[in-house]
Amino acid sequence: MSLNWQKPWSLPISIFFSILRGSKEEAAQEYLRLVENLQDSLEWDLVDIYYIDSSKDSKLSIAAVYKIEERNRIKYATNWNLGPYMEIIDAELYAVYRALEYLKQQRLKEKKVYIFIDS
User: Fold this and answer.
1) Residue ranges per domain, the chain?
2) Among 3.40.190.10, 3.30.420.10, 3.90.45.10, 3.40.50.80, what is the CATH number of 44-119?
3) In sequence order, what DSSP letters do the residues of the chain get, joined into one string?
4) pTM score > 0.90 for this model?
5) 33-84 pLDDT, tens digit each
């Protein structure tokens, strides 16, 4: 009997980055257009869409992850208070890290994942 084991690091992973050069408002409109276009053609059991957000004031920084489902509804949301000394980009990157950690635990196979970041 022969077992063919595939090394986890040899699985094909495809990554695409897109950076918009417009204002935050233009990026928000582009996000809504992209999600709307995606939702028309998606098989929702094969796709996960996440939106990353953060905010900061003089007392705290917040990082958040939202899992989006059909019709742009929030299926799952969580956030973290990162204290007063984190910058917005640090909070955004922390939220991306946490989203990727969550995805790693899910052991998703052959699933497309979209992560939208507005910073």
Assistant:
1) 44-119
2) 3.30.420.10
3) ----PPPGGGS----------S-HHHHHHHHHHHHHHHHHH--GGGEEEEEEEEEE-SS-EEEEEEEEEGGGEEEEEEEEE--TT--HHHHHHHHHHHHHHHHHHHT--S-EEEEEE--
4) no
5) 877 777 766 676 677 888 898 999 888 999 999 988 877 788 889 999 999 9
